[in-house]
Write a structure and sequence with these properties.
Strand content: under 5%
Number of helices: 8
Distance between the termini: 52 Å
Helix content: over 70%
Structural class: mainly alpha
Number of strands: 0
């Protein structure tokens, strides 16, 4: 079975009564955790993205306190888990500024942590990839924000 296109779905949703649309949304949220998380964001957090980004930063801080520091392999796995969560939250907000803020916070936490990631090539590559991602995103944002983020990014470079 082939899935309908986005335009077809949009047209069909506009023809349905509100009660039916509500039922469909609840059914979507029921089966997938990601759908439920996105719906929760849209209903409760989308009105104030800055507070949402701050809560994500707190979540990142908590995950950094639980990082295993004795084994490089588990450290790398945990850092990738944090980055997956940042990616998910970035998709929810759909703004480049919030993604930049979360990635800068991640890089700052990694740099100030007790993990000497410069000794491990894969962790160093992971860090450098995030810096590249930040630079790529900064090209398309407003000049004033670009200047502010550039200052923060300079502190993260070696």
């Amino acid at each position: 079975m082939k899935a309908a296109g986005l335009m077809e779905i949009k047209e069909e949703l506009t023809t349905l009564p509100p009660k039916k649309v509500l039922e469909l949304c609840l059914r979507l949220a029921k089966y997938k955790k990601e759908n439920k998380e996105l719906l929760s964001y849209l209903l409760f957090d989308a009105h104030n993205v800055q507070i949402y980004v701050e809560s994500v930063k707190k979540e990142i801080d908590e995950q950094f306190t639980e990082l295993p520091k004795t084994n490089w392999y588990f450290t790398k796995k945990s850092l990738r888990k944090i980055l997956r969560a940042i990616g998910k939250h970035s998709r929810h907000t759909a703004t480049k500024e919030s993604t930049i803020e979360m990635l800068i916070h991640f890089c700052t936490k990694l740099k100030t942590s007790e993990i000497n990631f410069k000794k491990n090539q894969s962790l160093l590559n992971l860090y450098n990839q995030q810096l590249k991602k930040i630079n790529t995103l900064m090209v398309s944002i407003h000049e004033d924000l670009h200047f502010d983020y550039k200052k923060q990014l300079e502190q993260l470079n070696f």
